[in-house]
Amino acid sequence: MRETLVLNAGFEPLSTVSLRRAVVLVMQDKAVVEQSHPGLRVRAARVDLPVPQVIRLRRYVRVPFRQRAAWSRRGVLVRDRHRCAYCGRRATTVDHVVPRSRGGGDTWLNTVAACAEDNHRKADRTPAQAGMRLLTQPFEPTPADALVLALGLRDGEALPEWLALPTSA
Ligand SMILES: [Zn+2]
């Protein structure tokens, strides 16, 4: 996957994001293209953009770059793309792998997105006690994930697959 460098409004490098994410940021007027691939454009029905190599955010954002992204329920849902860690269906709740009542904390590594049904079924137990298996292991968001969280991008704003494929001009 082609990566695009993201600069903060003050030109400090923040992170890299996927080309698709970069195009979304430009289309949403959250960023401007500072440097693009010569001769490569992203083309679609209502889009004709140079393929960005470097974009710069229009507004200065405070990003927890090189630091841990602050934990939040919304952040867990975005990190897990609103997919339940137990069944893969749409998740609207956040489950504590080790329940809070057993000392489990509000941390990235102890929380996963879960559908309401599985969250209710697991209740106040660990996955082992509930006889449930995690399909994916929770992880700390990368700086790129942290940037996406800080920009408040919502799930479902990704462009279609085909738009991510640049064509020669
Ligand atoms: Zn589920």
From TrEMBL:
Presence of keyword Hydrolase: yes
Keywords: Endonuclease, Hydrolase, Nuclease
GO terms for MF: endonuclease activity; nucleic acid binding; zinc ion binding
UniProt xrefs under InterPro entries: HNH, HNH_nuc, NA-targeting_endonuclease
Taxonomic superkingdom: Bacteria
SMART domains: HNHc
CDD domains for the chain: HNHc
Limits of the HNH nuclease domain: 71-120
Protein name as annotated: 5-methylcytosine-specific restriction endonuclease McrA
Species of provenance: Streptomyces radiopugnans
